[in-house]
Amino acid sequence: MKSSSDKSRRVLSVFVLAMLNVSIMASLRNLPLVAEFGLSAIFFFLVVALFFLIPCALISAELATGWPKSGGVYIWVREALGDRWGFFAIWMQWIHNVAWYPVILSFVAGTLAYLISPNLSQNKFFILSVILLGFWGMTFFNYFGIKTSSWFSTIGVIAGTIAPGILIISLGMIWILGERPVQMELSWNALIPEFKGISDLVFLAGLFLAFAGLEVSAGYASDVKNPRKNYPIAIVLAAIITFSLFILGSLAIGAVIPKTNISFVSGLMDACAIFFQYYQLTWILPILAFLLVIGAIAEVNSWLIGPVKGLYTTSTHGNLPLFFQKVNKRNVPTRLLLFQAMIVSIVGFIFLYMPNVSGAFWILTALSAQSYLIMYILMFLSAIILRYSKPHVPRAYKAPFKNKGIWLFGSLGILTSLFVIILAFVPPAQLNTGNPWVYCTFLLSGLIFMCGIPFLIYARRKPSWVKKKH
Length: 470
Hints:
Elements: H1 4-9, H2 14-25, H3 31-35, H4 41-66, H5 73-81, H6 83-95, H7 97-116, H8 124-141, H9 146-177, H10 204-211, H11 227-256, H12 267-278, H13 284-313, H14 334-352, H15 357-389, H16 402-423, H17 436-459
Helix pairs in contact: 2-9, 2-11, 2-13, 4-10, 4-11, 4-15, 4-16, 5-6, 5-15, 6-13, 6-15, 6-17, 7-8, 7-13, 7-14, 7-15, 8-13, 8-14, 9-11, 9-13, 10-15, 11-12, 15-16, 15-17
Subcellular location: Cell membrane
Pfam families: AA_permease_2
Protein name: Glutamate/gamma-aminobutyrate antiporter
């Protein structure tokens, strides 16, 4: 029987948890990347949904309702493969963000520059200032606890992602139905992409990364009201909202901007400018830019605490030095948050001083995707193992088709993740990333470094690191 104090800690409803998941996945900044595929974006979205999003949603729901404890993938992989691999899995979930945070915050800086002065988007000191102030500000904001942080993300994703997304989609539909000139081919043949070479598919890795993150909210499982029932409902709802925003939003951009003119950085605002200018609503553009900034900040905020809480859970079994085990009165691991902020600050400096910004942007994105997908391989494998090794653990939700289903969805997830990890080593045809051998060496070295750190920490752990229960 649960105590009243335990019940009082469960502060998240289905709606809030669903919005947290949407804020984790649904970033409108990804729309220009997908819009380059034109109508064939539907094909790629279906590929991602069938081979990754659906398996991830079903398996995350089963694992989270079977082991509804704070810690997420750490708990799941630990139960199946042991403590060493559990620590490795949660580390990879956390470390992939190191390259991702400066990227999305640079998008925030560019959008803010549009509000102040477009020339500031090329000012590295301005961009660096936004990255540092933004991330450190959100770090200290999360000191106030999960309830305050989650409500900020909920409001932010509604105002800064869902609302602008619906507006862009609506304008795109009005544009197409109003017989305006459409810049992409609208035919059945256009649904099937042209494959000139594997290098044309490399950006697909970025699309998989865009849909990743459903399992992150499992870090909030101990804060959810009735997690066995509400968790699967929330992630299915979030998946439907995210999929709809991505596919319809990208088509809206592709309808008004020629494929060759779509910019990864400003494509979203460029499309909105065309819409608003045509419909004489240019006064909305600054408001939209402000809302997009709020949405991006809410997305970062959603990622900022979840993986850290999961990493902190490993201290129960002595996998973190005592220094990082300190929490404040709201049970927030403050020193881990500070450590994360310091690493992101360092990476922010490196990112800004790279000579080829577009190439560096993609290399960091590819590295982030590869390290994250390694964690997914362990998660899918653990789900298969746990179905056999611990069949009697009650699960409020199970992946369909019994044991055949867990093999089907688990195998799809593992094989797809392996394919995308290998695919990311191929330099994209659309970008100049320099020498292909240097490109591959950078990714491989970065991946080895990121994978090696958790094993080094685990090998040097001490008995005194085990967190004492009070």
